[in-house]
């Protein structure tokens, strides 16, 4: 039985390589240079499928992949239906934050009960955050370049991932609130775990042993 692992290109793929190595899995090609969406490995019973980061939970949910690696951000937005999430891999770490243009008085806007316009790729996380604070918001869904929204008057604030803060700084924005810490997690299709237990469990154990704290 073939084991299929869903990964996204870029930082998640790079940071997953040492974990795969710990499980004795070496990709036959690098997804950045290859255009292939299905990549073989040194193990004939293991293949990788390369999908958009936000699509990883969907592939695993429907069993098109047995395992996957996805950010906590993506998993919250997806909802996690049908997914077993046994392990925080402690990779692709960053923070979900609220940010505004320099000079915008966020605390005053919140205090005065103004209705805030929030641009984000993460409507679920943003909605929950402001609901918990009792702040009324209009969520504007974007697919990228959130930093632009406050600069051109599309939104008062953004909810976005921040690691170094240099993109915010370069666009005259500043973080004003930390929502949650983000890292990537292993997700497993629940039926596959039962059906392919003998193949999957050793991979889970190897990953768990290789996670750095
Ligand atoms: P795309 O770039 O194709 O629109 P994406 O932005 O969702 O997709 P990546 O930028 O590769 O994909 O991010 C993948 C995951 O890595 C995110 O879901 C998040 O968990 C994490 N991540 C995103 N940005 C950072 C960052 N600056 N530092 C560390 N981890 C990050
Ligand atoms: Mg990106």
TrEMBL record:
Q: Does the keyword RNA-binding apply?
A: no
Q: Where in the cell is it found?
A: Cytoplasm
Query: CDD domains annotated for this entry?
Result: PBP2_HisGs (cd13595)
Using the UniProt record, name the top-level EC class of this enzyme in a single word: transferase
Q: Could you tell me which InterPro entries the record lists for this protein?
A: ATP_PRibTrfase_cat, ATP_PRibTrfase_CS, ATP_PRibTrfase_HisG, ATP_PRibTrfase_HisG_short
| Top-level lineage group | Bacteria
Q: Name one Pfam family in it.
A: HisG
Pathway annotation: Amino-acid biosynthesis; L-histidine biosynthesis; L-histidine from 5-phospho-alpha-D-ribose 1-diphosphate: step 1/9
According to UniProt, the reaction catalysed is:
1-(5-phospho-beta-D-ribosyl)-ATP + diphosphate = 5-phospho-alpha-D-ribose 1-diphosphate + ATP
Protein family: Belongs to the ATP phosphoribosyltransferase family. Short subfamily.
How it assembles, according to the record, is: Heteromultimer composed of HisG and HisZ subunits.
PANTHER family to which the protein is assigned, alphabetical: ATP PHOSPHORIBOSYLTRANSFERASE (PTHR21403:SF8), ATP PHOSPHORIBOSYLTRANSFERASE ATP-PRTASE (PTHR21403)
The UniProt function text for this chain reads:
Catalyzes the condensation of ATP and 5-phosphoribose 1-diphosphate to form N'-(5'-phosphoribosyl)-ATP (PR-ATP). Has a crucial role in the pathway because the rate of histidine biosynthesis seems to be controlled primarily by regulation of HisG enzymatic activity.
Indicate what this protein is called per its UniProt record: ATP phosphoribosyltransferase
Give the species this sequence originates from: Vogesella margarita
- What gene, per UniProt, encodes this protein? hisG
């Amino acid at each position: 039985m073939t084991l299929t692992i869903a990964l996204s290109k870029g930082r998640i793929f790079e940071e997953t390589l040492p974990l795969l190595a710990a499980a004795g899995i070496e990709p036959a090609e690098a997804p950045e240079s290859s255009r292939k969406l299905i990549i073989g490995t040194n193990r004939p019973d293991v293949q990788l499928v390369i999908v958009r980061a936000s699509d990883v939970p969907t592939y695993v949910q429907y069993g098109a992949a047995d395992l996957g690696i996805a950010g906590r951000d993506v998993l919250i937005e997806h909802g996690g239906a049908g997914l077993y999430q046994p392990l925080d891999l402690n990779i692709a770490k960053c923070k979900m934050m609220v940010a505004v243009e320099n000079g915008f008085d966020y605390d005053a806007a919140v205090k005065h009960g103004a209705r805030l316009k929030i641009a984000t790729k993460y409507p679920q996380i943003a909605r929950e955050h402001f609901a918990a604070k009792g702040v009324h918001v209009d969520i504007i869904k974007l697919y990228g370049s959130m930093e632009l929204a406050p600069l051109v008057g599309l939104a008062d604030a953004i909810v976005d991932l921040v690691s170094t803060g240099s993109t915010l700084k370069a666009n005259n924005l500043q973080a004003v609130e930390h929502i949650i810490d983000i890292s990537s997690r292993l997700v497993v299709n629940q039926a596959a775990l039962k059906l392919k237990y003998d193949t999957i469990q050793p991979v889970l154990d190897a990953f768990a042993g290789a996670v750095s704290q």
